[in-house]
Amino acid sequence: MTQELKNILFKVTLSVFLFANQFLFSQVKNSIKQNVVIFLVDDLGSGEVACYASKFHETPNIDALAKNGVKFTQAYSGATLCSPSRAAFLTGRSPARLHLTDWIPGQKQINRRTLTPDWKTYIDKDRLLLPEAMKQNGYSTAFFGKWHLVPRPTPIDMELDDPSKLKSISKMYDEHMPEKNGFDENYGGDHSPNQGGRFLYPKFRDFPGLAGKGTTHDCLTDILTDCAVDYLDRKKDEPFFLYMSYYTVHTPITGKPEYVKKYQKKLADNPNRDYYMKNPRKAAMIESLDESVGRIVAKLEEIGQLDNTLIIFTGDNGSQGNEFVPNFRGNKGTAYEGGVRVPLIISGPNISKGIISNEPTIAMDFYPTILESIGLETMPNEHLDGISILSALKSNAKLPKRNFYWHYPHYDETTPYSSILSGDWKLIKYLDDNSLELYNLALDPMESLNLIDSYPEKREQMVNLLNKELNSVDAQPAMPNPNFDPNKFSGGIREFRRVKGGS
After folding, report:
1. Which domain holds residue 334?
2. Which of 101, 159, 348, 502 has CA atoms 20 to 30 A from the CA of 448?
3. Are residues 115 and 185 part of one domain?
4. 33-45: b or e for each residue (b if 16 or more CB lie within 10 Å)?
């Protein structure tokens, strides 16, 4: 064999070797499972993030997510209150279909026009929740923060005023805790019955997984983030599903003192600025939230997983309180856009950067979207009310046109209602007196002009659509109360106790 032939054979062999190695590397790389990180923020409305509408709140880390991903302008929660919206996210099903339609445990009512249906204060165990699907496919799963899906009686129901007794009673519902619903680890959920001051040390130390954590002046948001950062360090070499369900910015509005002073000064220095939201304590809470988001993103980058992680940032419902949210009417609990519209930012591998999408989407879409994004088969028999929106994330494509509906047969922030959004039109039906409101959101996003008497054909069409949707999921109706007496006290049991105590 000549030297020339030997050289040729060597080059061929080397080329084959290099190609094989490149192919194997590519196969290994492609086989690496994509991680998922969810930020679900309690009571964060669409106008409370700087990259949406707020001129007062400072959220540079959240804004950076939007620059590196897709920001949705028409993102909707599954419900206008916490428990049902969380159930919608985990199941891909509407709360009306689940019959889980109020916050847990809800509030007992006295002498109302309609009777509260026998609704569920838990998710049925025959449901395959999103974290369970992830776990079945080899993912490490961890939950941090507010769960709010454990059935429990109120102290009033049980004639108990001692939260410690209530907590002991609640132990019988361990099967509904995060650990029994697909999560390997749980830090902070379910939340303590003792709500007051829970954000500051030491109130949160009796939360699951948080015993002994924190010192004086520490806040719950930071402690949960500490736990998440530690988790990422431990799980960096395996695929993970991290569900960051912050208690903030729910009441009590309690910010770090140094941040509160910062925003007090900001107000004082700009007395004529058109700040719609100008509560320094809430601004301080949101800055702490933003810091925590930044810490987790930085940790993902440090462990080399940022480019391999799908990140979803959103809220569970509209904002709480009396602060005016720019562009929308109403807040948490109401049927108006301010109650049901939330921020939504999604970034990750193969997702467009810096895109603003006007495509309507809803919380039930997360389940199939996450499955498709990480290369798993969707489960249409599970997430019945959601669709994958991955096409809108990759190429800003149009999504199929569909109707969104909400059903709240309870009293709390409002009277019982059902509502439906179909294109630009929105109908609200109040169930205690059958009154109707009709709005064109394209022309009137503030829902200031009720068109119910101006468009009789559209009214009839929307009522029929709403009834069709509710009937299709066997939604529980709010039935008239035959014993209602308009001359007697009518309201919630908490209000009744206050009235009684003051009499």
Report:
1. 33-404
2. 101
3. yes
4. bbbbbbbbbbbbb
Closest C-alpha to 298, from 137, 28, 65, 43: 65
Render 304-339 in DSSP notation, one character per residue. Answer: T-GGGEEEEEEESSS--SSPPPTT----TTSSSHHH
Which residues face 145 on adjacent strands?
Answer: 245
pTM of the complete model beyond 0.85:
yes
Give the Cα separation of 133 and 334 in Å (integer). Answer: 32
- Domain assignment of residue 337, yes or no: yes
More confident residue, 203 or 80: 80
- Residue 327 falls inside a structural domain: yes
- Rounded to an integer, what distance in angstroms lies between the CA atom of residue 362 and that of residue 75? 6
Distance CA 373, CA 308 (A): 11
Same domain, 284 and 354: yes
Are 337 and 397 in a shared domain? yes
Task: Give domain status of residue 348, yes or no.
Answer: yes
- Is position 179 within any domain? yes
Residue identified by tokens 């689940």 is: 98
pLDDT single digits (tens) 443-456: 999 999 999 999 99
Kindly give the pairing relationship between strand 355-357 and strand 70-76.
parallel
Could you write out the DSSP letters of every residue in 274-304?
A: --S---HHHHHHHHHHHHHHHHHHHHHHHTT
Do 345 and 438 share a structural domain? no
